[in-house]
């Protein structure tokens, strides 16, 4: 069942969303050569606590591994797609691309967003990967309107990515969001006709999150049982926003 939110609930989600924005906006400015991904984690954890929120990722269970995610951020560098773990040993260097994903729970409601940032001078192809991934999210957000269908979002991401010569990850998907971080429906970055294709209605809130590979779409999970990487070792980018469907159109809760 897809839970729809009323205006008061959307306002709470907005507050969570703006805190997530503030965290990512600050981290984006911190990203530089010589910074460790743990430096980002430390800054984020403080901002989330100062904002009176609970970090949504920390303690998140991994049923297949029987472990809980130990950090407030997922930081995924280069060939890491999602769910990378912050580390003091992971020092950013020029040419890297770093995806930062975080979520918070504030007053019972979740916000979830991700960005991919260049470190120093990156290759032309890496820049194009970042640009195409961001564009695919923006195009998909524009489809988040009452009367459209879920596949309008999924297909928009897929078409933009594939027409630019990149590939979408299939093993990880976007999701509904509200009082749970992951609610129905799943929001894949591709159209699978075997899935349901519900009509989008006012009050639905979706975390739309294209994960885009420069090379082949294949993925594998590292022995830490969290970090997803590209099978071919090529770069992957990730952007995400929490988006409410309203009578006035898409309301991106995770940016001002
Ligand atoms: Mg996320
Ligand atoms: Mg998400």
Walk me through the structure:
This protein is an alpha+beta fold and 256 residues long. The chain is built from four helices and 17 strands. It has helices spanning 7-30, 37-50, 124-141, 150-163, and strands spanning 54-55, 61-62, 67-68, 73-77, 80-82, 97-106, 109-118, 167-168, 174-176, 183-187, 205-208, 211-213, 219-221, 228-230, 236-238, 241-246, 249-252. A five-stranded antiparallel sheet has the order 10-9-11-16-17. Strands 1, 4, 6 and 7 form a four-stranded antiparallel sheet that branches. A three-stranded antiparallel sheet has the order 5-14-13, with no helix packed on it. α1 packs antiparallel against α2 (37-50) and α3 runs antiparallel to α4. It starts with 6 loop residues before the first helix and ends with a strand. The mean pLDDT is 98. One magnesium ion is lined by residues 101, 103, 112, 114, 209, 240. One magnesium ion is lined by residues 112, 175, 207, 209, 240.
């Amino acid at each position: 069942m897809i839970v729809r939110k009323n205006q008061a609930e959307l306002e709470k989600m907005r507050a969570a969303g703006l805190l997530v924005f503030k965290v990512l906006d600050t981290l984006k400015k911190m990203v530089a050569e010589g910074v460790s991904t743990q430096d980002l984690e430390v800054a984020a954890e403080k901002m989330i606590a100062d904002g009176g929120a609970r970090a949504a990722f920390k303690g998140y269970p991994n049923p297949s591994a029987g472990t809980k995610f130990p950090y407030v951020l997922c930081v995924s560098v280069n060939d890491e797609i999602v769910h990378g773990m912050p580390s003091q040993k992971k020092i950013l260097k020029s040419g890297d691309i770093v995806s930062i994903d975080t979520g918070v729970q504030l007053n019972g409601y979740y916000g979830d967003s991700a960005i991919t940032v260049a470190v120093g001078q990156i290759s032309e192809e890496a820049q194009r990967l970042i640009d195409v991934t961001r564009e695919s999210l923006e195009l998909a957000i524009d489809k988040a309107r009452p009367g459209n269908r879920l596949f309008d979002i999924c297909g928009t991401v897929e078409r933009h990515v594939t027409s630019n010569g990149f590939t979408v990850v299939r093993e990880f998907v976007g999701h509904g969001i509200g009082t749970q971080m992951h609610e129905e429906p799943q929001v894949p970055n591709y159209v699978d006709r075997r899935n349901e294709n519900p009509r989008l209605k006012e009050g639905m809130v979706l975390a739309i999150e294209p994960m885009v590979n420069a090379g082949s779409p294949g993925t594998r999970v590292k022995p830490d049982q969290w970090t997803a990487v590209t099978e071919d070792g090529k770069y992957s980018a990730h952007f995400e926003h929490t988006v409410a469907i309203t009578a006035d159109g898409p309301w991106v809760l995770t940016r001002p």
